[in-house]
Amino acid sequence: MSMRLDNLTFKGGLHVPDNKGLVSSKAIELAREPKTVYISLQQHVGAPCEALVKVGDNVKVGQKIADSKAKLAAPIHSSVSGVVKGISKMYTTTGIKCDCIEIESDGLNEMHESVGTKADLSKLSKSEIIERIRESGVVGLGGAGYPMHSKLISSEGCSVDTAILNGAECEPYLTCDHRIMLEHPDKVIFGLEVIMKYLSVEEGYIAVENNKMDAIDALKNASKGKNIKVVSLKTKFPQGDSYRIVDAVTGRKVPRDARCKDANSIVSNVHTAYSVAEAILDSKPLYERVITVTGNGIKEPKNLLVKIGTTIGELIEQCGGFNGKPGKIIAGGPMTGMAQFSLDTPIVKTTGGILVLTEEETKVDKVQPCIKCGRCVEVCPVYLEPLYIAAYSLKDNYEAAERYDALACISCGSCSYICPSKRPLTEAITHAKNEIKSKRK
Predict the structure, then answer these.
(1) What would you report as the CA-atom Rg of the chain, rounded to the nearest whole angstrom?
(2) What is the pLDDT of residues 154-208, one digit of tens each?
(3) Among 106, 209, 251, 364, which has the minimal tally of Cβ within 10 Å of its Cβ?
(4) Closest-CA residue to 233 (of 410, 10, 3, 2)
(5) φ/ψ of residue 232, rounded to 5
(6) Where are the beta strands (DSSP E) in 78-158?
(7) Are 149 and 74 in contact (CB under 8 A)?
(8) Is the pTM of this model over 0.70?
């Protein structure tokens, strides 16, 4: 176990302009009530849910409207009170077309009777903790979307001795996790205590990049007297990858084709911990989350508390609209986010940000031949050789790409960013990964 608590890091990665100054000092605002929400039945990794409501039903805020009996799934709740107007397929920010429940808000925000039941953590059994987290529909909010109750259950019996909250937020531009830590440190810490109690873990850490010192100070003040340490990480991408967090904090390497639990650790995002706290304290379901709407293509960048199912267009409108003609709209950050093609797309639980870049910022450089400089190898946090994997992928030689461990790539984008020849390395490797996986089915 590492004894240092400051300036921790891992091998590889790179420094990129964080551009967080556009919105990092802006407090979380409550977003305007959407007139209509479109709530996807696919909000996480695992099985999609099935609707529990039908057209014409009246629903309340926090009411469970979809669920699944699958092992890897979490229920979905209404974010408004109103009437179900339809269930139809729509594209979501993930780029996948999914069934979405359309609910017209009545503007009353009437809460469902199941919301608001208080609980005392010290008196809850393990089964009661899991039940409250599952029924609240909590999933990983750092982007992966793994159902939280499933992560906890699967970590049992794995000798997990260290619980880590991921507050790195290493993606440029995004500040929603930063604001959660700064404005709600008590709930973040309580969420970690829930995880520690469930797994009987003695060591608790919150890992934050050192470009958010105010959040580090807030968490240190709130955790005084508790068995929790707040550690600072070097500001470096992809510091927020869970395997890199385990490496930086504990010095343990998570083996390829393994999980953090195999390195006796569990890692959860700080926003996820905040949602766990709300599930335990108030049985409040995950029907809203904080989203950063930012970029030079937005007039008034903001951190907004947004109801799941709100469209991208509504959020941009609340931030003053576009600042000139947009070049690209991205759900998430610029390194791992997904470009969007419609403002009518609704956000899902895993949407942490909406980034609007200007036309000037999205100009594409001409691709040049590889000069074998090796910089992509130097920055790869997984110790891969991206130039060779990409080259084999572009020649449709996926067997060779697999021999070079293409499936171990975490698609962080570091290789493409650093490449002086502007080669689309990440895209080519991702293509190879998809081809290899499809042949295995």
Answers:
(1) 21
(2) 998 888 999 999 999 999 999 999 999 999 999 999 999 999 999 999 989 999 9
(3) 364
(4) 10
(5) -100, 145
(6) 82-91, 97-105
(7) yes
(8) yes
